Request: fold
Amino acid sequence: MNLLRHLTVLLRHAKQRATERILAHRIQYHNPSLWSHPTAIWDYGYRDMDAIQLGHGVVVRAFAEIIVHKHATHSSIEGGLIVGDRVTISTGANIRAAGGVIRIGHGSGIGQYVTLVAANHGIHPGVPYFNTPYDETRTGITIGENVWVGAGCVLLPGTTIGDNAIIAAGSVVNRCVPANEVWGGVPARKIKSLAPDAMFARSASRPQPADRHIISAEQEIPIAVHQL
Reply:
């Protein structure tokens, strides 16, 4: 038995746990209305707190992993995360905001084990996939207000989801989804239209503060979104 090797592994794990706790604590300190489960992982540059903007009453469930890299090795585009009021990010969600900005509007729900990817590697012959620069022609994800992203969905770079839309569980979205529509499948396609939500339409019509991309909302998250 190599005692030094055991100690090295233990110290490495202890350092990782300490780093995760410090980063999670800083997020909570700067966002006192945030409810984040102790098992949720916040991974971001220590000096990049300005790349994360959280609205009031955001909920992050167990084992979610939120990665925000303002400066990514493989991209010249800055990463960032902008989350509106009363957004729920459910169990096991994987949000990777590097090489682009991910925006989630007021009252939206991100279901269990959903993956949001702001940028992806390009393909270059003879170069290992994960060593190539990000494709900068399709970056970022924008999710509107009162959007329900069902469990197990994957939203790819360049995707926009309009207000009041629903993405069916297990879907892969690689294009823009209009407001007030239900989409599903691989790749996702329109299933049906929905009646516009008047409350959220009024909220969206209010002017936004000049220094932020998010504004306050006056409506609670629908019960169905709470139960994602």
In short: The two ends are 47 Å apart (CA to CA). Residues 205-228 have pLDDT under 50 and may be disordered. Helices lie at 3-30, 198-205, 223-226. Residues 3-226 form a domain with the UDP N-Acetylglucosamine Acyltransferase; domain 1 fold (CATH 2.160.10.10).
